[in-house]
Amino acid sequence: MRLIGKNSAMVSRVIPVTPFDLVIFGATGDLARRKLLPALFRRMLDGQMPTNAKIIGVARRQMSRESFQDFVREALAEFEPEALAAPKVLKAFLAALDYLVVDVMGDAGWADLGQKLRPDVVRAFYLSVGPSLFGEIATRLNRHGIATPQSRIVVEKPLGHDLASAKALNAQLGACFDEQQIYRIDHYLGKETVQNLMAIRFANALFEPLWNSQHIDHVQITVAESIGVEGRGGYYDKSGALRDMVQNHMMQLLCLTAMEPPAKFNADFVRDEKLKVIRALEPLRVEETVRGQYRGGGGEGSYFDHVENPASKTESFVALKVEVENWRWAGVPFYLRTGKRLRARVSEIVVVFKKPPHAIFPEMATQGSNELVIRLQPDEGITLNMTIKEPGPGGMRLAQVPLDMSFAEALGEDFHGPDAYERLIMDVIRGDQTLFMRGDELEEAWRWVDPLVAAWAESSARPAGYDAGGSGPEDALALLHRDGRKWREIES
Fold first, then answer.
1. For residue 345, is pLDDT > 90?
2. Angstrom distance (rounded) from CA 83 to CA 476
3. What is the third-level CATH fold of 20-156?
4. SS3 72
């Protein structure tokens, strides 16, 4: 069922942001080339980025401004083909680019960077570099007078590897920037469907009265990846699925699903409510967690083909049973799973409602429950699975049907919503921190995860093996079967 037709009165409103100077540290790296620079181009293409904006690439590679412009042109040709079909916008975008070599561990280049920045526009510093450089760059921005009270600094994950390192990072950044200037980015929060989760809950009278333990049986949050760790084996083997995905991305999805309505839709009110959820989480019990490693299958290599440690116990899959001990969610389990080399690339939140208290139709005992499926990728959309009478004569036969809202179908095939980085970078320029983690939120997430990391490290048990291209270890299925439930199938 299409909820919004192509002829809907819904109009995309693109509001230009104020002029800004954006400095991208690590501008020749993979993240900048694949995501950041194409995202900025799309914002200019849609008319949101002013033509007098300035984007300054900073890196160690010796390169002229013209060479950097050629570098960006090639990146756009590879990752944003629309650029070649819009030569005027492409020319304007390339004209906004500048480049500078800066020694982030020393003092060379910083004075030149300061001279390139304008005093009367927003200054934003995007640290697309390794986390070991976050503190060094922040310190030098402050020391050389480049960071003004109106500046913003953006940092990418990993934001620490445990509570102690997260506290140290917060202290480093806090010594140079106020909390309202620090943007800890999680691109999952920029996805259209994630924000629609808040709209579904708090802008409709339909779901919020049901959003509690009286009506919801359980919640499943899945972030499945079809790729393995190839190319990232060195990093991943020191991190694992729990640190790489659960502590940040999945924690944020859990918080937005479980949080109380904020008094107002602004950054601190929303983040206050997310923080309450994290503090209400019951400590994880090892017996209600599963970790796994893919062992190959279907012609695919194993986890050990891409890491240097043949005895590694680092997990490429994790499943958890999580409980939120508060009034709203008492008795409602949240099941989280994420893993590499699974059947398909899927990210979704599934809210499974309780069955009616009295079954008047015989078939109700075998029918599935109503489910609200909020899909983040690959095809963003929302599905409500409901029970109806099967059409035709022959008595009352029940069937499950989906009520779908695919954004592409609902808003037209030519609809192009901004991707996560497009939205989040523009939020930085606007000074809107609603979709960014606060320092205390980051620390509380690590405080909850750390005991499980320690317990796994002390255990002699190895992660359970699972076949590449499957749905994970058998132990993950048993995690729900013990409670009389089952996972929603991972489907592309």
1. yes
2. 44
3. Rossmann fold (3.40.50)
4. helix
Report field, pTM of the whole predicted structure over 0.85: yes
Helix or strand or coil: residue 403?
A: strand
The residue written with tokens 């179908």 in the block is: 409
* Phi, psi torsion values for 235, nearest 5 degrees: -70, -50
Report d(CA 286, CA 280) in Å as an integer.
Answer: 18
In the sheet with 398-406, reading across from the earlier edge strand, the strands are 398-406, 381-389, 371-377, 346-353, 216-224, 333-339, 317-323, 289-294, 464-466
**Mean pLDDT of all residues in 307-328:** 93
DSSP H helices in 6-86: 30-31, 37-45, 65-79
Task: State how far the Cα of 400 lies from the Cα of 440, in Å rounded to an integer.
Answer: 43
Which has the higher per-residue pLDDT, 366 or 25? 25
- Nearest-CA neighbor of 334 among 448, 237, 164, 229? 448
Say yes or no: do domains 20-156 and 189-415+440-481 share a fold: no
**Superfamily designation of domain 189-415+440-481:** Dihydrodipicolinate Reductase; domain 2 (3.30.360.10)
DSSP 8-state class, residue 208: G
- What phi, psi does 71 have (nearest 5°)? -60, -45
How much is the mean pLDDT over the chain? 88
* Joined tokens for residue 307: 């890491």
Marked catalytic residue, from 249, 306, 358, 481: 249
Give the residue-averaged pLDDT of 41-68. 93
For residue 208, what are the CA distances in angstroms to 160, 170, 192?
35, 35, 20
Q: Is 249 annotated in the active site? A: yes
Domains of the chain, by residue range, sit at: 20-156, 189-415+440-481
Quote the tokens at residue 61: 């590679």
Alpha-carbon torsion (37, 41, 44, 50), positive or negative = positive
Rounded distance between C-alpha atoms, residue 120 and residue 336, angstroms: 46
DSSP state of 297: B
Spell out the alpha helix ranges (H) of 6-109. Answer: 30-31, 37-45, 65-79, 87-95
Q: 3-state class of 398 per DSSP? A: strand
Alpha-carbon gap, residue 308 to 316, rounded angstroms: 15
- Which pair of structure tokens corresponds to residue 454? 């320690």
Q: What is the DSSP letter of 364?
A: G
Which residues make Cβ contacts (< 8 Å) with residue 457, sequence separation at least 6?
none
Cβ neighbours of residue 435 closer than 8 Å, sequence gap 6 or more: 186, 189, 190, 195, 423, 424, 427
For the chain, helix, strand, coil in percent to 5 are 40, 20, 40
Tokens 């004209």 appear where?
A: 95
Provide the sign of the torsion angle of the four alpha carbons 71, 77, 83, 84, taken in this order: positive
Structure tokens at 352: 């499974």
What are the counts of helices (DSSP H) followed by strands (DSSP E) for the chain? 15, 15
